[in-house]
Write a structure and sequence with these properties.
about 10% strand
Amino acid sequence: MSTAELKNKIQYFLENADDKVLKIVNGVFENYYQDEIVAFYPDGKPMTKNNYITDIETANNQVKEGDYISVEELENE
């Protein structure tokens, strides 16, 4: 079966799927793409989607807790 045929078949199934099937399919895709490389660290190491989300959450928490320096402080260092 070609890729186009497979996509059409899956699209048909999705259009006729109930909530249970949609949740299963969603889980499969989320699991498959969780290790997808979405960015790179400054040292060139790849960053997965999960790493990216974790790093953003950490940064947001640091800002909320006041754990940061201002631009002026950085320039004076």
